[in-house]
Amino acid sequence: MVVLNKIYTRTGDAGDTALGNGTRVKKYDARVEAYGTSDELNSFVGVARLAAEGDMDDALARIQNDLFDLGADLCRPDMAKDAESEYPPLRMVEAQVERLEAEIDAMNADLAPLRSFVLPGGSALSAHLHVCRTVARRAERLSVELASEADINAAAVKYLNRLSDWFFVASRVANSNGAQDVLWVPGANR
Question: Model's pTM, two decimal places?
Answer without folding.
Answer: 0.93
